[in-house]
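Tip: read the tokens left to right.
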């Protein structure tokens, strides 16, 4: 059976799980599932084709038909809710639950820590100190960033990280508190928007200052519809989660990178569309 915890679209999981189980157990048909769950085969066909969502009253019965229990059942519940979310804020809440169940560890930045996103230097410096020792030379630490910043800015940034409870001074330098952070539901806040603008500008700057072998910047322009847009958003979130798992296992970090993913419209919707 496919691993449910690798999916961010529950209908893809159900379709894949059905096809695998059908090979092993020929009786596991649309009619069999329909009788267990309480739906006709045409409903199941449209569900697998992503033309409709699973009704709230059918989630538990569908999970039972596929033998899901314990953490798998909890993940499936949240997965359905994530795919049916009516807003980005709702989706973010359920996505956090999915990541928790997947075992991806991170801490949501609190509202009183919003200042962390006021300057890209804070975010980069916190990552840099996670593998680089600090001997008190603020200028050297500032020169290690790209683009470089002054020792005075590094000093102020270190004090702010301490005040926010994200770093602690030790005899060996600085200890980073809580490895993985993200903005959680505060991602729409003004500070986050300004941070995103700053990192986009850094990416643009890198085109002129960083050799191509040390960066990867590509673009795509495409024609899509509303459903494809939702699918793309899910794919982006899944990619981000896979990146988080990959960097967690990096044995010997020796550089700080920032990854921007940008998906935005280049045309207005046709009249009558939503």
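Filled-in amino acids:
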């Amino acid at each position: 059976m496919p691993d449910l915890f690798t999916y961010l679209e529950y209908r893809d999981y159900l379709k894949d799980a059905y096809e695998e189980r059908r090979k092993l157990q020929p009786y596991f048909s649309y009619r069999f599932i329909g009788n267990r769950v309480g739906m006709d085969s045409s409903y199941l066909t449209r569900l697998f084709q992503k033309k409709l969502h699973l009704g709230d009253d059918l989630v538990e019965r569908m999970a039972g038909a596929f033998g899901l229990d314990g953490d798998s059942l909890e993940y499936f519940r949240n997965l359905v809710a994530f795919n049916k979310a009516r807003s980005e804020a709702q989706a973010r809440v359920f996505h956090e639950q999915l990541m928790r169940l997947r075992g991806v560890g991170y801490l949501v930045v609190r509202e009183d820590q919003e200042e962390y996103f006021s300057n890209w230097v804070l975010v980069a410096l916190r990552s840099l100190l996670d593998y680089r020792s600090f001997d008190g030379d603020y200028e050297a630490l500032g020169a290690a960033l790209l683009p470089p910043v002054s020792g005075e800015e590094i000093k102020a940034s270190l004090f702010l990280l301490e005040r926010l409870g994200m770093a602690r001074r030790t005899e060996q330098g600085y200890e980073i508190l809580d490895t993985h952070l993200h903005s959680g539901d505060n991602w729409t806040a003004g500070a986050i928007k300004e941070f995103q603008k700053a990192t986009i500008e850094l990416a643009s700057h890198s085109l002129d200052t960083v050799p191509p072998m040390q960066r990867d910047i590509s673009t795509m322009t495409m024609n899509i519809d509303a459903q494809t847009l939702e699918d793309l958003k899910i794919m982006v979130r899944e990619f981000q989660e896979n990146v988080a798992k990959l960097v967690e296992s990096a044995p010997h970090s020796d550089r700080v990178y920032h990854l921007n993913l940008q998906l935005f419209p280049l045309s207005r919707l046709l009249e009558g569309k939503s």
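The CA atoms of residues 149 and 223 lie 41 Å apart. The longest strand covers residues 167-170.
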